[in-house]
Structure formats: structure tokens, C-alpha cells
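Session log. Operator J.P. requested a structure for one protein chain; no other inputs attached. Running the standard single-chain path with C-alpha cell output.
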Amino acid sequence: MTRLKTSSFAFAAIVGVATVTACASQAPTAVPASYLQGTPLDRNQIGVAKRTEFLEIDIHPAASELSLSDKARIQNFVAAYRSAGHGPLIMSLPESSQNPQLAVTAVVEARAIAWENGVTYEEMSGSSHGADSEISEPLILAFQAYEAIAPDCPSLASLDMADISSNNELPTLGCAIRTNMAAMIADPADLLGQRPLEQGDALRRNTILTKFRAGEATGAERSEDESGQVSSAVGN
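Structure written below.
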């Protein structure tokens, strides 16, 4: 009889433990599903938006050529295209103008400025606008560029730093890093992975490998003028 009671008690205990274990495995958790997927940086992606950059050059009705300031504006615009432009550099001729001769000359000068600043003729595209306009239209230059969109970081003031109910990461983790990266990226189009890598310098690579194998310094040699030491004239 005693043996029977012991077996019944043991069985009841096993069933109780199994029930508790089952309840524990089905209990709600404070860990969100996103916490188990990827990293904080993955959850704070940088967006990329395309935009169109414009430059308008007014065609003066009494002028015979573009002013020096207008030429400088075109040169700066071409430099911006060389730095971050994608696709063709569009030059649109105004069909409605009080000075059609200067309008044509302006396009020719704009193409010459672009060529002198490293833009090939294949990268330029001509068009026209303002055929039905009742006013004198400007010369328009345009190109496509990309903009990095930083993630929307929640304010730290909105978080309860004293909440230690879980060991989860804060929603702000990784957001500031992505925001800084978005501000530092030279060409946001690179985030889309569309630009092919340029060929490496095989000659320079062989030079570095030769120095490395010989145990020599691979960095460029610095002269005394390039030294990082503070000048004695400053210290005295």
C-alpha cells in the first residue's frame, strides 16, 4: 500500500512538472520578433531618394554673350554634376526668347564649359522647352542626383531608461550611427550598388607587395616639411 502511494505521488509530481514546463514554454515573452532578426543597423536602414538638380540662366535681351557670373554658375553646376551627377547632363534650349541668338550661343558656351571641365559630349544631352510660352524662357541645365535619407530616430526623452523588465536593446540603438553615415556618404547612389568598381592599380599593388615581402615600410615616405612634429618656432 505504501509503495502504491509513493508511485502515485511520484506520478503526480512528474505531471505537475510537465504542466509547469508546458506553461513556461507558452508564456508570453518581452522580446519582440524583430530583436531576433538581423542587427540594430539592419533595422535602421538609410533610404535613397532621386532628385533633379536645376540651373536656370536668364537670357538678357540686349546682351551678346553670357556674363562672367553666369559662366561661373555654369562651371559650378558642371562641377556638381561631375561630383554627384548620374545620367546625362541636360542642356535645354529656350524656344521662346527675346534674344534667340544669345540663347543658341549660351548653349554652345555651356557645352564648351562642360567639355573643359571633363564632361564628354556623350555625357551631354540636348533638348528644348517653352515652345508655347508667352514669356522669354531661360537656358536650363539639369541632371539627376541621389540623396541619402537618414532613419527617423526616436527621441531619447521618449524612452524609459529605468525600465529593466528585459535585456532588450533600446529602439534608438544603431540609429545615430546610420544618421552619421547618411551625412558622410559622398554619393548616396552607391547604396543602390549600381556603380561598378574601378580597376585596381596593378603596378602600385606590386610595389606594395614587394616592400611587404622585403620587410620594408609600405607607407609613403614623409619629408621633414610634412612631419607632424611641432615647429620649434612655435614652442619658443
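Operator note: The chain has a mean pLDDT of 82.
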